[in-house]
Design goal:
Blueprint: E1 8-15, H1 26-40, E2 50-54, H2 62-69, E3 77-80, H3 86-99, E4 106-113, H4 129-132, H5 137-152, H6 156-170, H7 184-189, E5 192-194, E6 197-198, E7 207-216, H8 217-220, E8 228-237, H9 251-264, E9 273-275, H10 281-290, H11 299-304, H12 321-325, H13 329-344, E10 358-365, E11 375-382
Parallel strand pairs: 2-3, 2-4, 9-10
Antiparallel strand pairs: 1-7, 1-8, 4-7, 5-6, 8-11, 10-11
């Protein structure tokens, strides 16, 4: 933690069930989550001093539109677009503002309505050389999967087991888009999207919203009997690497996490629960290694021995992750924060990670030629 920043805590959370909400508007999606976060924080709308909104495809001024409809118009609003990292970036900027003493009470929310795009892969910039040659997200992760299976002896059944775990966890989460368990055989038999990835190994698109309220830690106990501290926050952008890139090394995640660990003095061995960006099954395995949970090539061991399942040493994606909860891209970072905060408060019922004291959220964003990813935001929370 930087010496000149004051401690910050989360005092309110809100989230709607992810899914297909074609009958709602973008503000209509966000309002219930925002109101729940304010209610949980015991704050009136007029007490919010600034709003940071994250979204990737929701048009102009989503923050102002939500502020208008929830009684908060007139306060400073910052709209953040950083692909899948949008609302995680919004949280980072809000944390900086409160930690620096600029504001005391700040609302952060993420929202997305992907159903309006009509389905299919996320639209990327056709001016990008890799995109124009077919490098959409399923293709990119399929290449990573093929290389990882080749280099480290993992199998297609191992990939499928990631989806099985996600659906097992998601079945316990009332806000998840998919709430039914599945089997390895069903995952492998589902429609092939990009070899070796099948349909159930790809996160579903959909609509959703999540919100949090933060304030200085010294004020938190006046608003919540279970405030959760922000132990650290870090945002990194991709490094341009022309030519060959190691498809099994998420460089931006390794760099972002190691810098955050150094800043906070907290290491991967201290983390009790985490939410990571499992947009595809292979991604979760790669992120075990990039976040320092295990050495290179050993991610499958953690999966096979139950280390990352509920009941294991460090459960990963107890919410069901993007694979089960869904991935309305602008909302996903904020939704991860809601899950980890509630886990640390002991509020997650049958998916509760017992005794969790330290939690981490991780989300990457953006497919652009020459980059591993365009952005990566990682946050650490503690009781």
């Amino acid at each position: 933690m930087h010496a000149n920043l004051r401690p910050v805590s989360v005092i309110g959370t809100g989230m709607i069930k992810f899914g297909k909400h074609r009958d709602l508007t973008v503000p209509g999606l966000a309002q219930p989550a925002v109101r729940d976060a304010l209610r949980e924080a015991n704050l009136e709308p007029k007490q919010i001093e600034a709003i940071y909104a994250g979204t990737a495809t929701s048009g102009w001024m989503p923050g102002q539109r939500v502020a208008r409809d929830t009684g908060m118009s007139g306060v400073p609003v910052v709209n953040c677009e950083n692909a899948c990292s949008s609302s995680a970036t919004a949280f980072r900027e809000a944390w900086v503002a409160v930690a620096a003493g600029l504001y005391d009470y700040v609302l952060v929310f993420g929202v997305e309505q992907l159903t309006k795009l009509g389905g299919g892969t996320l639209p990327l910039d056709q001016d990008d050389i890799e995109v124009s040659n077919g490098m959409v997200m399923p293709a990119l992760y399929a290449m990573r999967a093929q290389r990882y299976l080749h280099d480290y002896g993992a199998t297609e059944r191992d990939l499928a087991e990631v989806a099985v775990k996600a659906r097992r966890h998601g079945a316990l989460n009332p806000d998840a888009q998919f709430r039914t368990e599945t089997t390895v055989e069903e995952v492998l038999a589902s429609r092939r999207i990009a070899d070796p990835l099948t349909l159930l190994q790809c996160c579903p698109t959909g609509d959703g919203a999540a919100a949090v309220v933060i304030c200085p830690t010294e004020r938190a106990s006046a608003h919540s009997d279970r405030p959760v501290k922000v132990l650290g926050s870090h945002l990194a952008s991709g490094k341009y690497i022309p030519g060959f890139r190691d498809m099994t090394t998420p460089e931006i995640t390794s760099r972002c996490s190691s810098e955050l660990y150094e800043e906070t003095g907290i290491g991967p061995e201290d983390i009790d629960v985490l939410e990571c960006h499992d947009a595809f099954t292979i991604a979760e395995l790669l992120y075990y290694e990039a976040l320092g949970l295990c050495p290179r090539g050993e991610a499958v061991r953690l999966l096979r021995d139950g280390t990352t399942s509920l009941g294991g040493r460090v459960p990963v994606n107890p919410s069901g992750g993007l694979l089960s909860k869904g991935h309305p891209v602008g909302a996903s970072g904020a939704a991860q924060i809601v899950e980890i905060v509630r886990q640390l408060q002991g509020r997650c019922g049958s998916r509760q990670v017992e005794g969790a004291k330290v939690g981490l959220t991780h989300v990457t964003g953006g497919g652009t030629s020459g980059f591993d990813h365009g952005a990566c935001a990682i946050h650490l929370f503690g009781t």
